[in-house]
Amino acid sequence: MDSNNNKAKFALCSKSKLKLEALLPYMSYNLAEKHDLDTIKGSDTGSNQPFGIENTFTCAKKRADDVKGYDFVISIENGAFINDHKFPQDICAVIIKDCSTGKIYSNKDKIMETVIMIPDGKSLYENVKINGISKNKLGYNITFGRLLSDKYKVPDNNWMEKLCNFPRQRQIGIGLKYVFGKLYVDNKLITD
After folding, report:
1. Within 13 Å of residue 16, how many CA atoms lie on the same side as its CB?
2. Mean pLDDT by 10 residues, the chain (192 residues)
3. Residue 132 in contact with residue 48, Cβ under 8 Å?
4. pLDDT at residue 105 in the model
5. Closest by alpha carbon to 174, among 87, 112, 104?
6. Does residue 94 contact residue 60 with C-beta atoms inside 8 Å?
7. What is the pLDDT of residue 58?
8. Which pLDDT score, from 0 to 100, does residue 2 have?
9. Torsion angle of alpha carbons 102, 18, 29, 191, nearest 10°?
10. Among 66, 108, 136, 176, whose CB has the most other CB atoms within 10 angstroms?
11. Can you say how many angstroms the Cα of residue 33 is from the centroid of all Cα atoms in its chain?
């Protein structure tokens, strides 16, 4: 943190307006006035559609790894996995990296609270697989969102709002609320 004014510098590893909109309510609890927030392009994850819970968190961490000059780096990554009933589901991994200690705060232990069923998931998964596995083997070359957008004419980054009545911002917010709670518990954020 800046020792002159106690402002922490936050970086959101995304230029996505949707992710920024989801983050701003969590930055407004006295944080926006007390801390700085920049949106930056994070590292390329090498996968268009992270697949699997571990891989989705690996991609979120990879996005934040090379960011320098900030106190905290926020990375939000949506991925997919196959549930126990063999049905594809969308998940949202959120990490906040404390750059002074290297500690990663995440919603990994609560990831199932962000689950959204993917409409037509079984048939779409076959199309996702046909398009090939990513070079880094953390996911696939095409997203479920792209296929849903083509089929239903919905936004590829927020298909769930039209198809499931559950906006992406709300899904992201569930993860952000939990991770920011961990930062408060560790007294990492100044709110006075």
Report:
1. 20
2. 66 95 78 76 90 97 91 96 96 96 96 97 94 93 97 97 96 96 78 48
3. no
4. 96
5. 112
6. yes
7. 96
8. 47
9. 20
10. 176
11. 24
What are φ and ψ of residue 34, in 5° steps? -95, -15
Q: Which residue has the tokens 């500690």?
A: 103
Q: Residue 75's CB: how many other CB atoms inside 10 A?
A: 28
Question: What does the DSSP assignment read for the chain?
Answer: --TTT-PPEEEES---HHHHHHHHHHHTTTHHHHSEEEE------S-SEEBSHHHHHHHHHHHHHT--S-SEEEEEEEEEEE-TTS-EEEEEEEEEEETTT--EEE-GGGGGGG-EEPTTHHHHHHHHHHT-B-TTSSEESS-HHHHHHHHH---TTSHHHHHHS--HHHHHHHHHHHHHHHHHHTT-S---
**Residue 81 contacts residue 89 (beta carbons within 8 Å):** yes
pLDDT at residue 187 in the model: 75
Neighbours of 108 (CB within 10 A): 18
Q: Is 53 left (phi over 0), alpha (psi -120 to 50) or beta?
A: alpha
| CA distances to 25, 36, 80, 190 from 33, in Å | 13, 8, 35, 11
Q: How far apart are CA 75 and CA 69, in angstroms?
A: 15
